[in-house]
Amino acid sequence: MGQNRFEKFIRHYDRHHRTRVRDEANWFLNQPTLSDAISSAARARWRNGEKFDHQWRLKNSDLLLAEEALLAAEQAIAGCTSFDMLYNIVFQAVSHIWKNPELYCYDTALRIGARLGLNPDKVYLHRGTRAGARKLGLNTRGATLATSALPEGLRGLDASEIEDILCIYKDQF
């Protein structure tokens, strides 16, 4: 498979996903206010009110509850100095709404983090990324993985890109 066994996945990701990911981040970065970014992220909506694929199964009534909870936490969110801090605030705010909100919390924190200039520095595990990491023989007991724990071929990517690749290509590892 060549020097980097992940090369084909990275090339495919570049061609089919990277532009969408950057567009999404830029859209949240350019929201007029932090409140606007929080509302859109909490409701899992972006351009033209489109619902994000990862959250299509979530009930709109639950997303509205999440919006209310996250807007109530806006001051704490505004004070975040790291992605980890932001993720924890999001998790605390919405954990009463869903039994297992890992993916929602990660995606929502990533979107709000784009507005705040906060990016993950480790890979956050949820069902999809955990499955991909497990297939690579990584320890998936915790909530996150240090990028240094990942195979060499993935280490040069941003943590959010690694998260995407572990999730998207989990069945191909």
Strand content: 5-15%
Would you tell me the structural class of the helices and strands? Answer: mainly alpha
Identify the quaternary structure here.
single chain
Instruction: Tell me the domain tally.
Output: 2
Question: What ranges have pLDDT less than 50 throughout 5 or more consecutive residues?
Answer: none
Main sheet attributes: strand count, strand direction, barrel closure: 2 strands, antiparallel
- Radius of gyration (Å): 16 Å
Description:
The chain is mainly α. It folds into two domains: 7-19 and 122-172, no CATH class; 31-116, no CATH class. The chain has helices at 7-16, 18-29, 34-42, 60-72, 74-78, 83-94, 102-116, 127-135, 159-168; strands at 45-46, 50-51, 122-124, 144-146. The strands form two sheets. The protein has a two-stranded antiparallel sheet. The chain starts with 6 loop residues before the first helix and ends in a 5-residue tail after the last helix. The model has no long low-confidence stretch (mean pLDDT 95).
Brief rundown of the structure:
The chain is built from nine helices and four strands; from the N terminus they run αααββααααβαβα. The protein is mainly alpha-helical and 173 residues long.
